[in-house]
């Protein structure tokens, strides 16, 4: 047993919000425990990382203000180079699953690898599901074997993967500790992920800063609408939401992102609040219904607060997440192309009045709260390092 008062912990991530946001609370919890935490990320994430108390290190040889295209194209190799340069000075590498090279890189450095999943825990069956249902997005490589092989081979050589194929590298080159930000009951193929290696800690809620929020006036149930970047570009979708809920006795908080102008949605009644962004946890704590794209973090946060969902998935893991919500009776799924004001309103009223759905969500809320979140994740990380 190698117990110490504190460890030197290196974290690395790629500049995608859904993969980064849940790990920030973990960085804060580990820092508050007295560990020395360094987080390697794109320069655009400096402020968010430094707010956790962790030491921020930008990617080596990287633009100070990268464009979205630069972030998407160059982050993979830049993150790898930076970890390779500094990593040997640390006790472990905590990496989110999108940084596929994390395990091979930690092994090369001789430090403990610890993997974070911001989506479902992944194996061949889960990746096959993503490939079949995720549309023409990143997960489509798991639908087309030749494309997958073409992409995988040079990456495997360049980054020293154990396996030639990306699917095998993700599924089979697994560290001894994998932390999954969802309750085990929500995980698909859950029996294929042994508890000795996979810890399902629920939503990443603890360790995050609270923000003030005042909902629109009135006494009706509160509907929260927040979608991913693809649908956040659709003025038509948000106009349909306004039309659906303008005068049906509910209150609405709608986060529209940066692409749609609020004034383009027309005049709004006092029961509908439109903002570019809102503090999601504070809104979910008061919401009676969540209309969401089915991003895994958003769904996990809804489970934590026991909020039923209408899921409008776009691609990647979202259709699989949406299907799981429907299978477990935690809400309904709507196809984006079929959404009209009437469809939205009728589905919302059904879910709001579904007592069985609310009962099931109460059970999931208990499981999610008891899973431990980032406090449990930090405890498991320290225990793993004590055994190193």
Explain what the structure shows.
Strand 12, helix 11 and strand 13 form a beta-alpha-beta unit. The chain has 388 residues and is of the alpha/beta class. The longest helix has 19 residues, at 68-86. Helix 1 packs across helix 14 (373-386), helix 8 (235-245) packs across helix 12 and helix 10 (296-305) packs across helix 13. The strands form two sheets. It has a seven-stranded parallel β-sheet, with helices on both faces. It is built from 14 helices and 13 strands. 41% of the residues lie in helices and 14% in strands. It has helices at residues 17-32, 46-50, 68-86, 102-109, 124-133, 145-159, 166-172, 235-245, 280-284, 296-305, 318-327, 341-352, 355-371, 373-386; strands at 8-12, 36-41, 55-58, 92-96, 112-117, 178-180, 198-200, 222-226, 251-255, 272-275, 289-292, 309-311, 331-333.
């Amino acid at each position: 047993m190698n117990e110490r008062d504190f460890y030197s912990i290196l974290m690395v991530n790629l500049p995608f919000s859904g993969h980064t946001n849940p790990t920030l609370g973990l960085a804060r919890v580990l820092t508050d425990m007295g560990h020395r935490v360094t987080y390697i990320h794109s320069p655009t994430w400096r402020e968010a990382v430094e707010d956790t108390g962790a030491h921020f290190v930008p990617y080596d040889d990287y633009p100070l203000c990268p464009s979205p295209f630069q972030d998407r194209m160059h982050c993979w190799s830049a993150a790898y180079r930076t970890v390779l340069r500094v990593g040997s000075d640390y006790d472990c590498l905590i990496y989110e699953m999108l940084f596929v090279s994390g395990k091979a890189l930690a092994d090369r450095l001789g430090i403990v690898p610890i993997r974070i999943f911001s989506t479902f825990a992944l194996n061949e069956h889960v990746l096959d599901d993503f490939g079949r249902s995720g549309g023409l997005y990143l997960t489509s490589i798991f639908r087309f074997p030749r494309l997958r092989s073409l992409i995988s081979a040079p990456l495997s050589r360049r980054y020293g993967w154990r396996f030639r194929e990306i699917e095998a590298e993700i599924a089979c080159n697994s560290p001894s500790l994998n932390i999954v930000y969802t309750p085990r009951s929500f995980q698909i193929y859950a029996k294929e992920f042994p508890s000795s290696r996979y810890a399902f800690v629920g939503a990443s809620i603890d360790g995050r800063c609270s923000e003030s929020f005042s909902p629109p006036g009135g006494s009706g149930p509160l509907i929260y609408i927040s979608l991913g970047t693809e649908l956040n570009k659709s003025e038509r979708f948000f106009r349909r939401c306004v039309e659906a809920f303008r005068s049906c006795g509910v209150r609405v908080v709608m986060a529209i992102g940066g692409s749609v102008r609020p004034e383009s949605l027309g005049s709004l009644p006092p029961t509908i609040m439109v903002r570019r962004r809102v503090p999601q946890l504070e809104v979910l704590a008061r919401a009676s219904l969540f209309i969401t794209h089915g991003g895994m973090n958003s769904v996990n946060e809804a489970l934590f607060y026991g909020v039923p969902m209408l899921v409008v998935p776009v691609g990647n893991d979202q259709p699989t997440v949406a299907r799981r919500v429907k299978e477990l009776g935690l809400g309904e799924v709507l196809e984006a192309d079929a959404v009209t004001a009437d469809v939205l309103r009728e589905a919302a009223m059904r879910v709001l009045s579904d007592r069985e759905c609310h009962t099931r969500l109460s059970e999931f809320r208990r499981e999610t709260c008891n899973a431990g979140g980032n406090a449990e994740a930090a405890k498991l990380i320290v225990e793993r390092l004590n055994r190193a």
